[in-house]
Write a sequence for this structure.
């Protein structure tokens, strides 16, 4: 297992997730729905998270299986939806994912980063 590549995927996911939080800040749902630039920025970062998750799942299936509390398949599904239907994605889903699932994912990624550091 190439641990450096695994760490890179986890770090990419974490960075993109943090950026989503920064992009949205204290923005309201209504403000987000009117701000195409932020919609695109958040969408791109969700795509980055999904791509890193897909690669991690493909290259490190045992790691993904060992950490099944991370919704790898759902993350990949969101990536596919954005990549193949960007202009028709549901903004409610993007908002809800960004405000609820991403903070939860960041907590899990923090744990995985610390777990990996301790487990070596």
């Amino acid at each position: 297992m190439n641990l450096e590549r695994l760490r890179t995927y986890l770090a990419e996911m974490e960075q993109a997730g943090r950026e989503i939080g920064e992009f949205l800040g204290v923005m309201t749902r209504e403000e987000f729905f009117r701000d195409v630039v932020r919609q695109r920025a958040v969408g791109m970062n969700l795509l980055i998270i999904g791509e890193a998750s897909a690669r991690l799942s493909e290259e490190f299936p045992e790691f993904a299986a060992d950490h099944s509390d991370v919704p790898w398949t759902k993350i990949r599904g969101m990536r596919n939806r954005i990549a193949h239907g960007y202009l028709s994605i549901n903004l409610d889903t993007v908002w809800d994912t960004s405000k609820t699932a991403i903070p939860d994912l960041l907590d899990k990624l923090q744990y995985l980063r610390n777990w990996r550091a301790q487990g070596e």
About this structure: Residues 3-119 form one domain.
